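Tutorial handout. Part one gives the primary structure; part two gives the three-dimensional structure as tokens.
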Amino acid sequence: MPTLGPSAFVAQYRQHIAKEDRDFFPSAVEILSEEEWQELSDRISHPGDPLFYRTASDRLQALLSRKFDRPR
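Part two.
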């Protein structure tokens, strides 16, 4: 597999995030129960990547807030 340069990596990562936002998260909101969301929330840990963790964590918290009308 060829190595991606920084620009290609960022472009590919952005496409991945866009696909999650477009396909995965809307489906998850419809399918998962409150208990399943709580289990996901409980299992999230800091992966040690300061560049991407905050964005992912903020997106999950926003999704949980919308799903259950909880303040962040």
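Part three, for discussion. The chain has a mean pLDDT of 77. The first helix runs from residue 6 to 31.
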